Structures are given as structure tokens and as C-alpha cells.
Amino acid sequence: MYNATMTIGGHAVQSQSAASFEVRNPSTGEVIGTAPNATPADLDSAVAAAQAAFTSWSKKSDAELQLACQAAAEKIAAHSEELAVLITQEQGKPLNGLGSRWEMGGASAWASYTCGLSLPMKVLQDNAQGRVELHRKPLGVVGSITPWNFPVMIAIWHVMPALRTGNTVVIKPSPNTPLATLRMVELLNEVLPAGVINCVTGDDQAGSIGAAMAAHSGIRKIVFTGSCATGQKVMQSAALTMKRLTLELGGNDAGIVLPDCDPKAIAEGLFWGSFINNGQTCAAMKRLYVHESIHDDVCEHLVAFARSVPMGDGMAEQSMLGPVQNRMQFDKVARLVADAREKGELLLGGEPGSGLFFPATIVAGLKNGDALVDEEQFGPALPVIRYRDVNDAIRAANDSQNGLGGSVWSRDIDHARQVAGQMECGSVWINKHGAVQPNAPFGGTKSSGFGVEFAEDGMQEYTDQQVIFS
């Protein structure tokens, strides 16, 4: 069993209350470790350590920051397998396929790419009227609050651009999956100065450490990935101290399949676009609109492919899908599927399995207004909705308070681009779904949050701009 400690100011520490909470393997229900249950005083210590470290870290040259961040990226890569095993044990996703090893590959790739980015001074004007320079300056202490679906990769998305731009960090992982993040921060402290990155954990039961971070006067920015409801609370708390915010919130991504598609050829892409990480992905495809001329064929081939994907204990090498991560999410999926069974046609799955295992579920015959279509299920259940006119499909896809991602499936790329341009979301993919990459900004519209991550646009969100006129 892994009895983890927090890292504050470069030191391994327990909670000042000496309290801890259990972390369970969702595949087996077994306790795999414990994490400290931090107090507000622990958070104060972490923020103070980050503030102290900021004084020297923020003064490093761009080249020095790049070298230090590269060392951090190399440390993560060197411990990729160790962290992948921890992710599988606490999150449930399989080691193989699009699972923990894949997550660690993505984390390493994002870390390395971010190291190579830079925000140099820009000369806006240099003439007889004077010189105008635009400088990017680090904010200070960045607070990172991460979710349970990709505990290391999303942490890297938050942490690396913050460090690369000269900020220091206090990170709080989800109480469902704290162990891999605690270990990651412990490893980073082997190559980074003390206090540059700190980690606090809490069970979120009595007095949320996340809420305290959002309100803390010593934190200049919060970057949060999670639900819309929690994002709203973060925003409210952050307003009191005028914090900078990057909020990547829930999505209810729609895919639109145009009538010229080959149903068999797109079945695998449709499946993984929806069921990656067992559907527990903000930018997974959660609604699928299919033209009536190929609707039945798409359903047939999608179901056939889904039947070929093995589900089981994440530690089993043959597993490609694992359990739902926690009971609350499992119960939500079960509720939505039960409602969908009453209103539509169950094509696959639908019956909850043992423990937290829920089979890949596909339901036809639903429409906008049905719960499984309107609500973000964040689990292994996909509604397939028949449409006749593409304009109706676009309207239905846009009929959501969310606007994170979307996709269009077609052999005619030009037509697909035209449809994509009418979708109300931050990212649209053609003939794939959810394929984020580090050189392209990623963020949501409407209730899916604001601000962007990745690439230079994402880096800029960790800085204040200063214009110098001379």
C-alpha cells in the first residue's frame, strides 16, 4: 500500500492534523493507498513556499527556465511506467490501449513540447516617434485544481506552462486520484528548486481545499479542469481577489455523420471518439447525429466494433476499457441509461455490471430533450440520433449550454469544413474526435469555460503583459 505524503517547500510532509484518507482501486474496491487530508494551515504553508520560491524562479532567464523545465520533462519520462501503474490502480483505466501508458506518453509529449515554447519580447513600434515593447511577465503563484479522469496528463497541462513562464505552483489533485500526482510532484522536486512546485491533497468532505485555493489572497491564478458547477464556484470565489482564471469545464460534444460516409470505415473512430477513457473525457463525443440514409448501418457497425473491445481490471494486459472511476459517476450513468431505455432502443449494453463496471452502451431512437442527450453522461453510454436535414443536425448539435468540442464525419472534406464552421464549440475535428495536440489552442465556449490551454496562446494566460514606451 502506498502511503503518500504531500510536498511543500521541497519537503515531504503529512497534514498538520495528521489525518489522511483512503484511495481505492475502482476495479477491485481495494484500498491501494492513503493521502494526507490537508488543513487550511497546510495550504498556507504551500502558498508561502511557492511565494518564497517565486522571488528567484521568476528572475531566471528564458534559457534557464527552459533547461529546468526540460529536466522536469525528462524526469517524468524516466518514471513513466511507475506513474502509469499508479494511474491504473487509482483511476481504473487499463494500462494498455488508450489507457495509462498512453496517458503518460501524452504527458511526456506535452511536457517536452511546452519546454520548447517561448514568449519573447515583441517590438510593436520602433521609429522616430519612439519605441514600444511588449513584455510578458509571470503572475506569481498559480493554483492548479485537477480532475480524476487524467490525473497526470492534465496536471502536466496545468503545471508545465506555469513553470515555463516563471511562475510557481500549488497543485491540488482530485481526492479520487491523488497518488500519481503526489508522486509526480515528489519526482519533480528532485530536479527543481524547493518550493517551485508544491502539492496539497484533501478529501473534499469538510472544508474544501480547492475552495480555499480559489479564495486565497496569495494565489494569482487558478487553472481548473472539472465540472461546470464547480467551475462556477471557483469563479465566484476568485472574484474577491481578482484572480486570473483558466476554466476548462464540462462538454456535451456532438458528432455529425454526413450521408456520404462509409459506416464500416468510420466505426472504430466513432467508438474511440466516444468511449476513450470509458467516456470519462471532457472532449469525448457524447451525442452522435447520423443521417437517416446510413443510420442503421452506422449503428450496426458501431455495435459490432464495440463488442470486440474487452473490458476488465485495468491491471490486466488485455483490457482496453476499465470501470467507471467512482460510485457517484457510475450512478449518474446508470440513471441516464435507465431513462434512455424507456425512451429509445437499446442496441448494446445497458445493464450495470459488478462493482463499478458498466458495459459500453449504445442507444438509438432518442432526441434532444431526452436526458442522455441533454446531460453530460461522462461515462460509457452513447445516444445515436437520426436526422434528415444537415441544418437540423447542426441546430440540434448547437442546442446545448456546452460548447467544448464537436466533430463532422464525411468523405467531402470541404463540405465537412463548412459544417464545422457552423458548430458552436471551441474545437471541431473532421473524421476524428477529441484529438487535442500541444501545438493547437484548446478551450471551450458557452458554459464549457473560458481561456485556452496549449501552444503559445495557452502560455500567455500564465503571464501579465507589460508595455514599455521609450
From TrEMBL:
One of its GO terms (molecular function) is oxidoreductase activity, acting on the aldehyde or oxo group of donors, NAD or NADP as acceptor. The keyword Oxidoreductase applies. Keywords: Oxidoreductase. The keyword Oxidoreductase applies. It holds the Pfam family Aldedh. This is 4-(hydroxymethyl)benzenesulfonate dehydrogenase. Residues 14-467 form the Aldehyde dehydrogenase domain. Belongs to the aldehyde dehydrogenase family. It catalyses: 4-(hydroxymethyl)benzenesulfonate + NAD(+) = 4-formylbenzenesulfonate + NADH + H(+). It comes from Polaromonas hydrogenivorans. Involved in the toluene-4-sulfonate degradation pathway. Does not discriminate between the sulfonate and the carboxyl substituents and can also be involved in the p-toluenecarboxylate degradation pathway. The active site is at residue 248. PANTHER family: ALDEHYDE DEHYDROGENASE-RELATED (PTHR11699). CDD domains: ALDH_AldA-AAD23400 (cd07106). PROSITE patterns: ALDEHYDE_DEHYDR_CYS (PS00070), ALDEHYDE_DEHYDR_GLU (PS00687). Homodimer. Its EC number is 1.1.1.257. InterPro entries: Ald_DH/histidinol_DH (IPR016161), Ald_DH_C (IPR016163), Ald_DH_CS_CYS (IPR016160), Ald_DH_CS_GLU (IPR029510), Ald_DH_N (IPR016162), Aldehyde_DH_dom (IPR015590), LUC3-like (IPR044086). Gene3D superfamilies: Aldehyde Dehydrogenase, Chain A, domain 1, Aldehyde Dehydrogenase, Chain A, domain 2.
